[in-house]
Amino acid sequence: MKKNLVIAIDGYSSCGKSTLAKALAKKLGFIYVDSGAMYRAVTLYFLRNKIDIADDTKVVDALKHIELNFHSRDYESHITLNGEEVSDEIRLMPVSENVSEVSAHKIVRHEMVKQQQRMGKSKNIVMDGRDIGTTVFPDAPVKFFMTADPKIRAERRFKELESKGNNETTLEEVFENLAHRDYADTTRKESPLVRADDAVILDNTDLTQEEQLAFAMERVEPFLVH
């Protein structure tokens, strides 16, 4: 197998990027890195500490006090913020409503990209996010760009929130949040969400999780040594 093989998965919110990434990591014995969780954890820290995203000096200082770590249980990625498990809290609406603005900040992105690139230097990894195949690992040999019908994406996200006990958010609010994030992600100046020229498009609107994994494995297979 190619040394330090990186599989990059980019795409819109609630397209099942993490579901596919975790399934691939489990199938291949790779490490799964959820880059979106990193931005969400930073956003959570900023919200808790009332960091003004427009104040670069405060942003730089805040980043010095943020330590993020991943740990895995059954290929489920868990993230800690300064030693505190925050995997569930970062998925709630307050973070979702602010993460696009935080992740668009040049200073935040540069710091997170540096951390992500360090993770891929010595290990076989599957990483999902918005700019993995374009900015973080532009030379990754395997790249996917995921998309799905916006209504289907909103329904998936709504069900996920319900499963976590959040019954206060409506389906319409989730749909509007995703539309806002799509716009913010694709129009930001710093590493916008775009498909890399060599990325394979994976539209999973009508695919099961098993079907999308099979689709991806077929394209990863040539890079594996038997």
If you had to describe this structure to a student in words, what would you say it looks like?
The protein is α/β, with parallel strands linked by helices and 226 residues long. It folds into two domains: 128 residues, Rossmann fold; 87 residues, P-loop containing nucleotide triphosphate hydrolases (Rossmann fold). Helix content is 47%, strand content 17%. The chain has ten helices and eight strands. The strands form two sheets. The chain has a five-stranded parallel sheet with strand order 2-6-1-7-8. A hairpin with a 2-residue loop joins strand 4 and strand 5. Helix 2 crosses helix 6 and helix 8 packs across helix 9. The longest helix has 17 residues. It is globular and about 50 Å long. The model has no long low-confidence stretch (mean pLDDT 91).
